[in-house]
Input
Amino acid sequence: MALDFIAGCIGGSAGIIAGHPLDTLKVHVQTGRGSALECAKNLLKGGTLSTAYRGVGAPLGGVAVINAIVFGAYGNTRRSLPNPDSLKTHALAGGIAGLLQSFACAPVELIKTRQQLATPGEAMPSGAWSGARHIVRSGGFKALFRGLGVTIARDCPAFTIYFTSYEAMTRGDLSVMKVFMAGGFAGALSWVLLYPVDVVKSRFQSDVIGKYSGAWQCFVQSIKTDGWRCFGRGLGAVTLRAFISNGACFTAVAWTERAWQSTLSTDAPVNTFVQSTALTEGVCHDNPEYIYDM
Output
């Protein structure tokens, strides 16, 4: 429905804006640019956040497409199953949503990662579309989907964990603050559990010289050169980022729903999605089907 989509886009954008500096820090740490403190100092050189927000255009530009896929897959899967409110249904619907949105998420995150790691002397453009054209010109259309397999391996279980844990924490009536906390905890949990897969994805997608032939080789080579500890680098930053961005996403969605609800007259027909997820007097009913911010 239109309200689902609009609210999700607003919430997804809020989550991206709130969490992007920490996402940039995460990518720098994951790819071996230094410790979290060293990378943070480099990103904040000059006293501005412009470097930390490098590459934000791609995820902001892709949030509408990703939302459409997530809403369609998650909502329709739930409605097609016999017991749409069971946790098993939420888990299955989340996994399918994660699978399908990966086809949009992989190229978006590839562009974002390349731009986040680009140095001033490199030819990588700063715009989302110009970055995509640059990758296609240098490696063909297939190059945009480098890392698709490992993105699926991350997002299928991540969405399953995310939607199931969020639903479990939001059974009953909740205030907006509790929605923020539940969204934050659900996002952080899914990231912590799937973080090693994300490390491989970041390293594989950032490889512009063809060092890795595939995600599995990237995984094996990372262990050989950096040890198992490399899969925990940046975990603190990503956990904080996941909590903030997912909490911000759900809060923005909740307030969008609340604002929409306030515009409806008591005699007007109420959208069925609003009936199940609207916030009235600061209370959220049931579970909103919103995007998971990666």
Residues 87-117 form the longest helix (31 residues). The two ends are 23 Å apart (CA to CA).
